[in-house]
Amino acid sequence: MEVSATASVHKENGVVANPPKELDAGALFVLKSQGSWLHCGYHLTTSIVGPVLLSLPFALTLLGWVGGLICLALAGLVTFYSYNLLSLVLEHQEKLGNRQLRFRDMARDILGPGWGKYVVGPLQFGICYGAVIACTLLGGQSLKFIYLLSNPGGKMELYQFITMFGGVTLILAQMPSFHSLRHINLVSLILCLAFSACVTAGSIYIGHSNKAPVRNYTVKGSAKDRNFGIFNAISIIATTYASGIIPEIQATLAPPVKGKMFKGLCVCYGVIVTTFFSVAISGYWAFGNQAMGTVLSNFMGDEKPLLPTWFLLMTNVFTLLQVSAVTVVYLQPTNEVFEKKFADPKMPQFSTRNVVPRLILRSLSVVVATTFAAMLPFFGDIMALLGAFGCIPLDFILPMIFYNVTFKPSKQSLIFWVNTLIAGVSFLLVGIGAVASVRQIVLDAKTYRLFANM
């Protein structure tokens, strides 16, 4: 049987590790601990930097220049801080001989069994599987966009392209472990830089051309709409920075993990600063308060594309390829759950006993996600609601609580009150963001239709 590097007993700074625990199949096969800090950086980048960043110019239309850039920078600082807190807690637990490999393991060991089983586990599963559905929908939309550029007036419908993208995901889903995605995620990192550079260059080109739209940077709508728009924008920005699988990514590191996650986060946030701010600023500058839900829609213009067809095709191909990597990354928590329940850790990973259920269950998972994506092409509204209930608690609230409970900083210390303040404000945003998301679902309900060709 394959032996995980986590199953080692060591002594560090006078602390003797607890006896090694026998790993279940999910931890042993999917969360294989063999990666370097650079591999961790690739995984982190793919989990955060995706085509969802193309909605950032729209978020700025709801906040304006000052509010938008402040929120964008503040969310980046808070998440970088939050993810480092999670990493410190995980490193501390490993030092004590209790390496936690999953978010729900952290919740179970730090807050109690019920938190892992009934709160964090379902929240994380819902967010990650929802991301798979959303990415499948986005992949289908990118394919359709490429099809219409090369064949204007084509009759194929959106659900057909979603099915095609699902077929590609079906193959990639069979990658055996998170660690085995390291090369795919390196390509993903390069692709996200490429499509962000294309979008930035395209926005600047349009902004300086005679096709440039009349730009207005005032926030549109009534006072009520503007107030709800602020919270919608905050939800969009928070969801764009969200990962939800930080412990699972750290689990792919070969022990000892001390300091490696920080290096990986520096790689990731270097890419984030480069892509998020360039796309947000250039897109909002070029289109003002006319920026759409995804800035690529603005490139199409009212009557004809504002950029050469070859440029739009290239940008969409980069986006399509990168979203396929994001989809497979967010399948990993589902894969891990299946392996834990249905695989036998005492048998080799590639034995018939383990390969057959893996093939069946992963394929079934992709088929279900593809079906939902085809049925619900308005899934973005639902994902916003899931983001309010899932992304903010997992990425903005729980890391603060985990740190305070684990290290017990003095109530007179700055770190205690910073953590408490972030958690408290984030808790309020959960409620307000959920209300704003439900309101948007109600407003858009009249356009909902199953298998709509959007």
Q: What is the rounded distance between the termini? A: 49 Å
| Radius of gyration based on Cα positions | 22 Å
If classified by CATH, what would the architecture be? Orthogonal Bundle
CATH class: Mainly Alpha
Adjacency order of strands in the biggest sheet: 1-2
What is the oligomer described by this structure? single chain
β-strand amount: under 5%
The class by helix and strand makeup works out as mainly alpha
Subcellular location: Endomembrane system
Membrane topology: Multi-pass membrane protein
InterPro entries: AA_transpt_TM
Transmembrane segments: 62-86, 118-139, 159-179, 186-208, 228-246, 267-287, 307-331, 359-376, 382-402, 414-436
Question: Can you put this structure into words, describing what you see?
Answer:
The protein has helices spanning 25-30, 37-48, 56-95, 103-111, 113-150, 158-172, 182-208, 223-241, 246-251, 260-287, 295-299, 309-342, 352-375, 379-407, 414-444; strands spanning 11-12, 15-16. Mean pLDDT is 88; it is low at 1-19. The protein has one domain: Hydantoin permease, CATH 1.10.4160. The longest helix is centred in the N-terminal third of the chain and has 40 residues, at 56-95. It has a two-stranded antiparallel ribbon with strand order 1-2. A hairpin with a 2-residue loop joins strand 1 (11-12) and strand 2 (15-16). The radius of gyration is 22 Å and the shape is globular. Helices cover 71% and strands 1% of the residues. The chain is mainly alpha-helical and 454 residues long.
